[in-house]
Amino acid sequence: MSATITVPEAEAHRICAELRARRRWYHLALWQCWGCAKYSGGDPAKMCGQVVGCNQVVARYRRQPR
Asked: Does residue 4 form part of some domain?
């Protein structure tokens, strides 16, 4: 069984903002962030996995030292 990681909401929003600020849209994974931000209108409740469950955010959170 794999353990599920819960990203704190404030941390998830911070990571999401960092990912979107990178502005390197030639990376395929960041197109997901662009679409998420554009079509949600910036509303965190409408974003991918309500930001906390976004696969990009979870992957970045896992790589951070604790």
From this structure: no
Burial class of residue 36 in the structure, from the number of CB atoms within 10 Å of its CB (0-12 exposed, 13-18 middle, 19+ buried): buried
Greatest mean pLDDT among 1-10, 11-20, 40-49 = 11-20
Residue 11 and residue 8: Cα distance in Å, rounded?
A: 5
Q: What is the pTM of this model?
A: 0.74
- What's 1's DSSP letter? -
* Residue 26 maps to a domain: yes
Calpha distance 9→27 (Å, rounded): 25
What is the rounded CA–CA span in Å between residue 63 and residue 36? 22
Count of domains observed in the chain: 1
Q: What residue spans of 1-66 are helical by DSSP H?
A: 9-21, 28-40, 55-63
Domain containing residue 48 = 9-63
